[in-house]
Amino acid sequence: MGSTNMSYLNPQTVILIGIPGLEHVQFWIGFPFLGVCLLALLGNIFLLIIIPSDHRLHQPMYIFLAVLAATDLGLCVAIAPKMLAIFWFGSYSMAFNACLTQLFFIHALQGMESGILLAMAFDRYIAICNPLRHTSILTPLFLFRTVLMVAIRATVLVGILPILLKRLQLFQSVVIVHSYCEHMAVVKLAAEDVHLNRSYGLFVAFAILGFDMIFVFVSYILIFQAVFRLPQKEARLKAFNTCTAHIAVFLEFYILAFFSFFSHRFGHVSPYVHILLSTIYLLVPPALNPIIYGVKTKEIHMRVAQICILKPGTEQ
């Protein structure tokens, strides 16, 4: 690793310190995070098993849910091993290229999750506002193209972030004040002009999260208008109930996402508070999503009951 006047030229490794200010309790903080990760892994693996195996769940909403579960699994795998290694074993060093790889997967999977939530909102919009055309619009080919477009958008837009970071050569430090490789945390290490990196990072955030959030809001405005036009109270409640799980997941994802995003760039939040919240933002939604959909979705709830309670021979 080259060094000149306390600067680092083309560093080969970086140091992740975990949660600054809480180093003395990081060992114990790791256990709740491990519990959240295990809950996320078990819940999402369970969804990925029951959705393909039950023909009643071969519907657009559940197919998108399966993709969301796969994305959540990827997030846990991308962040948890290194984070827990820092907390428990003091494994602070990380190859710079490995850091950029982790950065890419974390932010790309975040972008994919946002896109899938938008696709699920579109599914709810068609199901409630234009139910007679639901099956003709959301065909298997349409679902495949939607998921492919979401993946390509996230991969291309986020893929430029590590490329822009790789062109930087001079760094004022190699110590990343975080428990994982986050884009702005790495950008702040540079001793060069990073205006392009900051501007493009903002563009990616608004092009993915901002765009998706706006259209999800528009979808639900139209959905609520259609629901409130229904003549019977029971019909309104039934229609609204089909959206509650998605609304809960949507609010959980975007509230945590935007708080983490803006506090890191514009806020004056203590570093340990920001890092704890940004880690919670990455790990808690993958753990809660299977629970929310398992509780609020009748078909999944019934399938879980059949697997966990009924004997194999009683399933019809």
Automatic annotation (TrEMBL):
Q: Does the keyword Transmembrane helix apply?
A: yes
Mind listing the UniProt keywords for this protein, alphabetically? Answer: Cell membrane, G-protein coupled receptor, Membrane, Olfaction, Receptor, Sensory transduction, Transducer, Transmembrane, Transmembrane helix
**Pfam families per the record?**
7tm_4
PROSITE patterns membership: G_PROTEIN_RECEP_F1_1 (PS00237), G_PROTEIN_RECEP_F1_2 (PS50262)
Annotated membrane topology is: Multi-pass membrane protein
* Keyword presence, Transmembrane: yes
Q: Which domain of life is it from?
A: Eukaryota
Which Gene Ontology MF annotations are present? G protein-coupled receptor activity; olfactory receptor activity
The subcellular localization recorded is: Cell membrane; Membrane
Question: Membrane-spanning residues where?
Answer: 27-50, 62-80, 142-165, 202-227, 239-260, 272-293
Primary subcellular site in the record, as a coarse category: membrane
Tell me the ranges covered by the G-protein coupled receptors family 1 profile domain, including all copies: 43-293
- Kindly list the GO CC terms recorded for this protein: plasma membrane
Q: What does this protein do?
A: Odorant receptor. Putative odorant or sperm cell receptor.
User: This protein is called what?
Assistant: Olfactory receptor
